[in-house]
Design a protein that fits this description.
Elements lengths: L2 H36 L2 H18 L6 H7 L7 H31 L4 H8 L2 H17 L3 H25 L4 H22 L10 H36 L1 H34 L5 H28 L1 H8 L8 H8 L2 H17 L2 H22 L4 H27 L3 H6 L2 H23 L4 H22 L1 H33 L5
Amino acid sequence: MTNTSLGERTLRGILWTFGGNAFRFVVQIGVLAALARLLNPSDFGLVGAALIVIRFSDFFSEMGVGPALVRKQDLQPGMVGQAFFISTALGLLLAILLILLAPWVSAFFRLPELTSILRVLAIVFPLRSLTVIAESLLLRDFRFRKIAALNTICYVLGYGIPALLLAFRGAGAWALVVGQLTETLLRAVLYTLAKRHSIRFVFDLDSLRELLRFGGGFTMNRIANHVALQGDNAVVGRMLGADALGVYGRAYQIVVSPATLVGQAIHRVLFPALSKIVGETDALRQAYARSIQLMTLLLLPSSVLLFQFSNELVRILLGDQWIQAIPVVRVLSLGLFFRATAKISVSLSKAVGTVYGLAWRQWIYASLVVGGAVVAAPHGIRGVAYAVFGALAAHYILQLHLAAANTGLRFWDVVRLHARGIVWALALFPISGAIRQVGLGLGWHELAVLSVGVLVLGTGTLVVVSVWPRQLLGESGMWFLGQLKLLLKGRSSGSEQDRKKNGARP
């Protein structure tokens, strides 16, 4: 595969993944808005505490063997069967352990009703083990369109509809529990049907050692990352209670959702794409630089807008009863860029195999999140948000340092990749603030303030890009637009050829 064709497939994969994530994001916002009006903060807090445990334990259920398959350029005979055996065995083991340890976990969170929820949710481990290998093989084959479709179907039919129906009927926290279970079950079924693979275990010491060596470092990294992502929630749940965790968790979701929308799309596609050009230093360096510059142009301005319009977003999405979430959203919005863009450096490190160097940096990040949250908890959830923001900034710097080593770039050369995005964000900050103040001064509703702000700023951005494209977007942005035009042109040409072939009128 040439670098050109790889670039086209990568861009197409990012667009499909982003499109699927964007649609699912819109649906998630609608489901969240409805559930926030049907359930109370303690319901969200209770299930949130359970998911902290589930998501942490889930990382042991595959030991990183799925990503090891994605990264491997030539799969050896029996490696897929070995990976499936490891994932399945660990999934069953974790389910049994969680059922036995549920009372102790509930005691830690001081939530007695958590025991039954944990024991029911333990079922997700063996179900997810059925999904891991199939999804990894689809990623390896660049089947991002199918993955996007499957994930959207599973969320809408598996989580959204069951959770809303049960919440409407007064099921409380169990509406969220059932939604998690049905979504996981549907994913297991659909992914198994979408990608059939060998489940026969063939003992091969060399391939098994290779799987576990990469998978071990990968798992250490994922555990640390999960501790960082959920450690603040655990501290809030234990020290401030279920109500505070419910408020903090919803604020966190508002900020993380757009970060996931963009960051996950980039990460899921870049990891297999970069894995195919490991050893081609110039191509690897160029791909990384372009990714950082594009993400900076997109997400730094987005962080500014989320900060400025956080009050309107919370009131529109959650309602006036959730106003305590507003200061948390404002603080965490500043870390949106760090959280999403760090995934580019993480993808690079995983692709080149520096998973252990990545892991110890992730553990520093996790320590800063948990330690900072413990120190800041007496100041409430806003204090915890400030601690998390500081940890995100430190983590981003650590990842940039590792990426510089992996690409052969100097650290300050990597930092300078952010210049255009910083300038654009600084220009938008006073403009967006002025638009909001004008709307509030005229007595507009929150929805009107937000809509006018997005419309004016969006239109202004399009005007600037059309008049001074290279000055704003730089070489990377112009490359992206060129590739996008070629992609769309190729699709249009292909569609026209199909019509002519079939004798249809254009």
